[in-house]
Please model this.
Amino acid sequence: MSIVIHRLQRPAMTALLSGVLMTSGCANVQRQMERVAKDWCMTIRASQVLPVYPLTEDLQPGDVFMVHASIHDQAREFRRRGFLALDQHATRLQIPDEYAAFYADAFLQGFGGTGPVVRPGMPGGAACGSGRPENATITGAPANPGGDPDTTRRDDDPAHGQDSTAADAAPSTSLGRHLLVPLPAAQFPTYTFVVSRSAGLRTALPIKGIPTGLRALRADNARGSVVLRDAFTYGLPGDVLLSHLHTWASDTDVQHELARLKQSVGHASVFLRVVNRVYLVGGVTVLLEARTGAGVSVEAGLAQPINLLTTRTDDLQRMLTNAELLSKIRAELGGSMKAPTVDERGTLRVGATAAFAEASERSVVLNEDFDRLQVIGYLGFDVEILEGGVLGPAVSTLYHLSSDGTRSLLAPAAGSTAALFQLSAISGALDSLENRSRSGDREAREAVRAAAQLAALAPKRFHWPIYEFVNADDLPLLRIEKHAGTAVDGTGARRLLDFLGLLDTSVSGLEEALDLLQRCESIRLEGTGDQMVTVGPGQGGQGQFDRVRRQLEKKHQAQVDLRARIASRMIISPGYRRLIHAAFQIME
Amino acid sequence: MPLQEQTGYIKDSRPDLTTREKNAELGARLQIAPWNGRDIVSIHRLEIRVRGWEVRYRTGSI
Model:
């Protein structure tokens, strides 16, 4: 009986064991794929760039994504997988005019910059001795980020492009394939890795040259390195995008939708991730060195390895005209690949993009050109959606995900529109915390108490008058809102935020008044003791006019300096971080 | 202090703001000092001669 049972159970046991082994094998493959993908991403990440995985062409500054995860969960996911999924595309901010402004002030010419020095190495630049590069006349984006053929033209397609000089130069093989693309260049370090054929690398690495090379080597395991070639970057400053984001979010319909979204997730977090810089690559060079020899498992292998190192075009042509040999090569290089061809330079090409630069039985070097520039990584910032659809302060995505959980806040230039929005958002966050504190929320109460140390950053008294510009019907008036020597009132963090708001109002009021005086227009000026003085070209002589103007300029400069000093100290103060942290925590 | 009305002015940050940007700036400005503590009566848009918002608010008490 026991024998019968044994016999009956044996096939079942075998099947079970096979299943376990297969499952285990699949798990290993999955693990290795994840590890390779993660290593790849962490290399990009080590270059202070957030990796895009898989590579895409359709990512550009101003892209806004919705992220439904707490900071903690995002950081954990990022550590585990090495990249962040950008799955829910919320909007694309319309910002074409900003590029020209951002790149206009560059020291070097090119990319829209009209600086004093011709950028070396650019077509039409110093190397060509023709003065200003043709590409410096760009008025919109530095290049079409969507990979428009006009800006990502290839040297094998000289007719493609608007610039006849560039087109004429394009066929020269001494020029890099994307040298003519008018984008600022970038360089990435070499990425090294160890791969195994068993891991199904086509899905683990975003470069198809690697499995191709691995097959050509007939190796099960290989050590490899990847050089990212033709790397470029372009972007926009965070404060510009932040302003556009706030503008977009202030639309009634959008705000209503954001509020609804926040309400639907309850205490969970939801962020808007804004891309402000992208990194693109035009191709890769892959070096693979075999670690182990060919195994019996090589599918459709050739009887003899093909010597890919041959430089003789006729040899390669002969190989490729042999139908039997060709089918074997195709099988060797992967059935899904297009037929290998030999180009006019005698290089064996796989499909349209991958070409063997060097090959031997132990190593292979492949150049893989992407048809168009691909985004490989990006920089961005996150803005949390708070209750009511209000946007929180901007936090750099990279710092957001740092292992220690530190949140570094973007510090827009003091006085900029972005600084105004940020101050407004912080004020909103403090309101929210104070309300929760009053309703008995212990965490909120502690946060408000901790943030109260910010009060110390505001001076005890106003050293200068705080002005406010009033556009009166008769004569514009520069009114004094707070006289010099008045105590700065308020308590806690609110005291500092109010002080900064007043300072901002005063600075912009002084700027408005000085602008009018500069244009020789008269203004009324409130003096000490509430008396009004009219200041203008025809009032009290030129001497008094100049003296008042100098005094106002001095006050303006002092207040601008004070605002910048306090804002920079606020951003790094523990009380401020505590306030923002608590706002995030409570919303979560 | 007797109840009275005062006029304030919130100037556009740039002359070429879109309508949406104008509204966003106004909204942000009203959240912070000195505007967050003011009892606002009316807001008017100014486009002639100057670009910004004329905001009337109450001071004092009855």
User: Anything to note?
Assistant: Chain B touches chain A at residues 7-9, 11, 13-14, 18, 20-21, 23-25, 27-29, 31-37, 46, 50, 52, 54 (CB under 8 Å). Residues 4-59 of chain B form one domain. The first strand of chain B starts at residue 4 and ends at 11.
